[in-house]
Structure formats: C-alpha cells, structure tokens
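Researcher: Sequence recovery benchmark, item below. Answer with residues only.
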C-alpha cells in the first residue's frame, strides 16, 4: 500500500525557499528538457547556481516568486518581474498534473493586480505546447546563452496579453 502524497499548494515564495527552488529548477531541466536539448546543453543549464542568486532575485532585483509545495517540499516555481515571465520550472514528479498551469495563473493574476497587461518570455522548446495551450504566441525564435559557457539553447520568444477573462482573478 502506498502512502497518499500531500496535495500541491501554491504560495508566495520567500528567500527561505531558495534551496527548494534551486532543487526543483535542476530536476526540471534534467528531467524535462532532455527531449529537446543535448546532454552538454542540459549539463550547463542545470549546473547548480548559488542559493544567493535566488534570494537576491526576490529581495534586491524585484522578482516576484510563487512556489508549488507538496508538503514542505518545493516541487515547482514561477518568477516574474515587470512584463517578463522569468521562469516556470516544475519537478518531473508533478509534471502533467496542472501544477505549471496553477503557477502560471497565479503569476498572471499577481502581475495584473500590479497593472501589468502583457507578459513576454523566452520559452524552452519542450515547454512550447504548454505555453501555447495557455494563450501565449511565438513572435520569434532565438538562441539563448547559458551563462558564460559559450553554449546556447534555441528558445521561443513568446507573448500574451493578460486579460481578466484569460486569467481568473482571485486572491492568492
């Protein structure tokens, strides 16, 4: 008999979540991006970043974070700033369960409450079907550099006009 997994809750991320965010970030890249990118690209992309990078993004750079938590474990996150959706990464364990959609909707609602009317982003190729299903459209493909490694990944630059009907407004 297997124990029932705790449900996934979405909440605002804090600097104390940095380790869980980083772990979900790495697991997502290694588990979900290998179908569209080379092992060399995945290795550079998923190399651990300092925890301070995530903390500073929240406290000094003005990024708003939301985390998906299963019990006390972070299994995904979304980050946005100004009109940019900076990131959504989901642990492979919860992929396909609506967690990414819930994080995206929460980020969109939060942005709309703060007066943002359009999101733009760089989407990995493996995530294109997800973002298209959520109303995002590709306006250009580009090469995105991975740190200072000299390695790049192909991505899709996408945009979406945020509307009250496109993202149900509710409190977080």
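Model:
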């Amino acid at each position: 008999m297997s124990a029932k997994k705790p449900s996934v809750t979405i909440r605002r991320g804090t600097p104390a979540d940095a380790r869980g965010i980083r772990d979900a970030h790495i697991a997502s890249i290694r588990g979900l991006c290998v179908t569209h990118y080379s092992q060399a690209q995945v290795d550079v992309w998923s190399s651990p970043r300092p925890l301070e990078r995530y903390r500073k993004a929240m406290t000094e750079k003005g990024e708003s974070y939301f985390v998906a938590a299963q019990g006390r474990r972070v299994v995904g996150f979304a980050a946005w700033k100004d009109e940019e959706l900076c990131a959504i990464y989901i642990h492979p364990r919860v992929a396909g369960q609506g967690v990414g959609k819930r994080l995206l909707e929460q980020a969109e609602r939060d942005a709309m409450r703060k007066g943002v009317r359009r999101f733009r982003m760089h989407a990995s190729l493996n995530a294109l079907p997800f973002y298209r299903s959520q109303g995002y459209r590709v306006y250009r493909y580009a090469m995105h550099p991975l740190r200072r490694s000299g390695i790049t990944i192909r991505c899709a630059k996408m945009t979406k006009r945020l509307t009250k009907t496109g993202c149900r407004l509710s409190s977080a």
